[in-house]
Amino acid sequence: MAGSKTERGVSWEVRANGRHFHQSCRRKSVLCFRWGRYADNVVRSYKYTPLTFLPLNLYEQFQRAANLFFLLIVVLQCVPIIATIPWYSTMLPLLLVLLVRGFKDLATDVGRRRSDAQINHRPCDILTPEGFETVKWKDVRVGDILRIHKDKVIPADLLLLCSTEPHSLCYVETADIDGETNLKFRQALNVTHAELNGDSAKQNLGSFDGIVWCEEPNGNLHSFKGELHWKGERHLLDTDHLLLRGTVLRNTDTAYGLAIYTGSDSKILQNCGRLKLKKTRVEILLNKTVLVILLFMVTTTLLLAVGAGLFEYRVSHQYDVVSVLQRDSSPGYLGFLSFWGYIILLSPSMPMSLYITFEVIHMVHCFLIGRDLEMYWEDNDSPAQARTTTLNEELGQVGHLLSDKTGTLTQNRLLFRQCFIAGHIYGDMAGEFKPPDLSWNRFSCGGTKFSDQRLVDKLRERSSPECQEFFTALALCHTVMSEWRDGLPHYQAASPDEEALVCAARELGWVFLSRTRETLTISEMGLTRNYQLLAILDFTSKRRRMSVLVRDPGGQLKLYCKGADMVVLERLQGNWLLQESTERALELFAQGCLRTLCVAVRSVPETLWTEWSRALSQAGTATGNQDTALEDIYEQMEKDLTLLGVTAIEDRLQEGVPETIASLRRAGVKVWVLTGDKTETAVNVGYACKLMDPDTILIEGEELRQLLESPSPDVRLMSKEKEVWTTRAEKSKAALVISGPELAELTKTPEWGAKFVALSDQCQSVLCCRVTPAQKAEVVEMVRTHSTSITMAIGDGANDVNMIKTAHIGVGLCGVEGSQAVQNADFALAQFSFLRRLLLVHGHWSYYRVCILLRYFLYKTTAFALVHIWYSFYNGFSAQPMYESWFISLYSTMYTSLPIQCTGFFEQDVSAKSCLRWPEIYSVGQKKQLFNPFVLAVTLLYSLYTSIIIFFIPMGILQYSALDFQTLAVTVETSVVLTTTVEVILHTKFWTKWNIAAVVFSLVVFFLSTLALHSARLFTASPKDYFFLGASPNAFSTPEVWLTIFVTTCIAVLPSITIRALGVVLTNPNKHKIHSSKNESVELQRFQRGTFQRRSSYAVSQGKGFGKLITTGVGLHSAAPPKDGRVTADGLKKESSQGSHREMNGDVSC
Amino acid sequence: MRFVGRTSHVCDVYYGRSIRKAEKLIQVRPCGERDRSNRMKNEGETTERPDNTAFTQQRLPAWQPILSAGIIIPGFLLIGLAFIGIGVGLFLTSQTIQVLERDYTGIAKDSPCFSCTIPNTPNCTCEITFALSELFKGPIFFYYGLSNYYQNFRKYGVSKDYNQLTGDTQYFKSPDNFCFPFDYDSKKNPIVPCGAIANSMFNDTFELYQIINGTKKQVPLDGKGISWWTDYNLKYRNPVLVDGSFAKAFNGTVKPINWPKPAYELDLTDQNNNGFLNQDFLVWMRRSALPDFRKLYRRITEGDYSGGLPAGNYSLTVHYNYPVMSFDGKKKVVFSNVSWMGGKNDFLGIAYLVVGSLCVVMSVVMLIVYAKFKFSDDDV
What we know:
The complex is a heterodimer. Chain A is an alpha+beta fold. Chain A is 48% helix and 17% strand. In chain A, the strands form seven sheets. A nine-stranded mixed sheet of chain A has the order 16-35-34-33-17-29-32-31-30, sandwiched between helices. In chain A, helix 29 links the parallel strand 34 and strand 35 (827-829). In chain A, helix 15 packs across helix 16 (496-507) and helix 31 runs antiparallel to helix 37 (993-1013). By secondary structure, chain B is of the alpha+beta class. Helices cover 26% and strands 17% of the residues of chain B. A four-stranded antiparallel sheet of chain B has the order 1-10-4-7. Chain B has a four-stranded antiparallel sheet with strand order 2-9-5-6, with no helix packed on it. Classes of the chains: A alpha+beta, B alpha+beta.
């Protein structure tokens, strides 16, 4: 038996009410070992426990090469024979770095724990022998039976056993999982529904002893395979029986479920991916640079060691003063010792304190992001926040923005804004919205954004039969279910479009009251009428329309149809009137970025109906290709239509989305939309939010495939493809549209991925529709691998978590839907439009500041340390330090760190206003202009030059005098400090008082502490550590020293000044760039004009609609018509049957 | 590196009063529903609204120097001219300084000190003569110079015991490890002062005579104050006298191996110049930066020669003790007078002249470039 179960892939055993059974196999873990089978329902996104913090954090920190290197140096410094400088000069900065970093990690982890605890402590009801008991989420175990109330979040993956709804149906909102806000229904197995439901549900459930065998936990949200063994029978389970963790129960009073996967086993958490340490590209390059410096250092050290060996071999043996000191060792051994001595001596060229400065700068930038008033959203009181504090400069380099649609670009509110009836356009887009007086309508709930008094008047006066017919069509032709609350109908629709249309009809007096399997009850301006529902010709994405066939109270048969303009218009009766004005209206609606649907009617003769219904029932029973058969039959009915009108629905965008996207596009950011929603919706939104220009061509499906399928798999043949490409889209713009299944194929063949990304670079945008969360992440991964740019993912729901984690930078919107995205994001924003400021201002500044900082740091440390190399040639390669050891430890931490930090905090190469006005400035970061191998090479060469100057000029001058080593040391030290300070002054363009203070302070500190360290007081305390007694007072009172310092500094900074001066001289006379960017802003307005493509579509769920539910009559209990006696007998009959049904369920919701 | 619009923001208005300290830097501020529930929205104080300060809004008042060609080109020219001025001054000053150098190593067979280079010639003396055609203006500094001598060799440099040299007798018994192998003699007696530097102290001595009509008139050499004030007064201290005897303070120690006499006998005539405070010792202990160096030996400031050395013939008697031949070292004596800027140093003046001329050249180049660009700009 077990073997066969494994074969069937169902090896995961869940015993209902079997807490003890599952308890024994609970998954436990200590450090990295874990055993047991069933995870508990605790979310653990934290990294450390009190026990593991120290080792784990140190392990992580020492993974950073620089830290490890310095640890090695400290160890080396403890070996007296090679200790060229005392141990504290490295140990102190290293400790500081480790402490600061460790503290930061701890704080972040505590924050994570806190947010975990919040989720883990949510309440839920589980069944215990004593009845239902409220426990915390974290206490839910596999095998528990849970009771979920309406509007509650489901705490684990549950097998739906029964619900209070008829047929144990229940509705869930999966917005947090796949981004779709329309409701999905789930239905329990008939057997559990029949056996467990009823008045004694509690007892029934308590004695339920079924065993579920299902597949091992996996991340596939749309499939589930399992079987329920109960009472000796086997029942197959699929995804329709499953309530996923994170979904919200809607429209269902109570549902009972059996926990199958809990905690980390649940599908959504399996989809979450692991917490990864993100490194910025700049940091990676920095690490490489540090590696290069290290290699350079080791090579140099090797050469110097060889020098030391040679010196020993050639010179030292004759030179008894020295050779005695060498203790008669061989030149080779001495060279070996001097190798390590030089490693220690040159180690300051590794910018260790850079990492800590880097971190501090990042933290300050994050703080400033969080404190920016212009990224603060008053409505839900949320400022922006930077949750990961290491990615700031990456914000200035984003090349690809991958955005979720629902809730990110759109508000996910569809509004009926305009309509076209009988040659007139009603509703006004431009003017101020004045809510029309709808007090006459007792069913009005408000909430529409449609206002046109003319239409309202016409409807009330009943002066326009076209208008009446139009709204009758809207009230009838849909698959919406109604629910009565507070005496008002509330609608539940599979498609938000339909809901918007039905709501609009309701507001204007055509109220859809209720439906049964065979009737539709509507109230037409207060007059309740009953229509007999004969057939629903349901929507499919291929048909792009839906129709209902009804018999009106007058006995006439009518087909109401609504659908995309293309499909409806071609099915109209021959010479229809108003063709021109309809076209114009469609054009107008398209310009307003409204989604249109055409509504049409057809009077169906009785004979046609009988004939057709026979064909329909035949098709229904026919085996084989049922769908196409049905389509053909539907086709026969949906013809010779008469156009009633056109609806225009606005998919409300978030505030400022088009402007933001236009700005980002100008900044050179490629914006991709990844959505679980269907293609038509995504395309429509794409146009609406200026992602694509109105004349942009869409490349999708087969065409895209052909482009990708080049004759040779070699990606280098792109040029050939480009030809194909240019012929196709010459002088026009294009966007790629790809759907989930196509994408799956694409990601399977890696070379296609590369081509796709290359192709997308020439397009305005890419829309990926109907993609799963995992696919979103795959797309991000694809962009990451095949392009060199930084990817940023933005989303608001749990379905975006994976992509947010995969992208270089993840941004979460703290919107209405949960906080999963924010929890996993690197940055959290309240509005999509804040992205503009985050990237263009904060990102750009951060990038600029960080690059300046890094370059300067590399410069100052290498220039400082390389001096030792030059000095070696004059001291017999004996690893004699050029500086006092105190200077070495204080140089980077005290004397030169503050000014550059201030620059790192405050520097603004351009003001925020200019950053926003000229988004083109942003390309500096995308092109990595400020920090790339070339710039780094120049920086390092310049520091090499500086080190040469700083050593040889003082040496050349002082060799003619009787000044000693300590005087030379002080001279070189002062020259180094002055040179690096002048350099930072040259770097700073934005002088706040803090910058000035920092420069002055650093210099004062240098002179004072040098004098103090060379003072008698410290010498008497510890002669060995402060043996530079008197060196600086003596040197500073020698004019020769000052003259030397001055000229050395001047020569050292002369190239830097000259290049800057040349830059000014070259750029100042022509301000072309500014002018050109002004021109472009003019161009921006142009894309308001031009030809508009009509967009007509219908947004429905990618799953099945409610059509089948209605026709099968399942789940129609809430169709409660008003009990004011204005219902026809037919309706009453149905009502009573439904009512009895309801009583049976013990439901008193009405 | 130049940005679009870099000059456009000069007039941006920055305002703001207080800087809020970035104390709450590491703060995980959750957003979203969770914390909105426990926040009272009506009370303004619990809101997350960021403060409107100049710092947090990055509106700190700032000075943004915008340089233009009109400032830079004359600036370069002026700086260049200033440097040239200083350079000329320094160079001319350097030219006025008189220097007299004599190598007395004795490598050449005909050189006066050749005989002393033969090993095992104790108390060898040789005589170097020179003639001055004009007055050598005083005060004159008398240096000895060594070349190819690595006083800056690291192990040599650390081979001394600072504690010992502060006169702390407890370190007399146990010299620092760094002094090895000059810490104990073969009989395990501690050496004071220990270490290689002290052991290798320069011990040639000189006497200068003016030859007037065949007779030698000794030129008085002033050995006072030739070391650093801090060395003499702070860094080096003699041990406290034991029983009124300086020598007894050194009891139980031995002299450095190469020294002819112990430290307490360096200058028996002047107690203030004896022991660790001996000026020659102090000068030697301040090690040189480079392998070719000179150290101050004496000054000529006294008697008939306070105004300098008059023209005439001179003879320098060298008590040749210090061996340098083994490592191709050279020894020399240098007489020099000084100016306000120190000794003769042409390099300094030249450095200034070079920088100055570079600046001037650059300003000319920039002027040409600027003119060209402006011209082409007008064309457009």
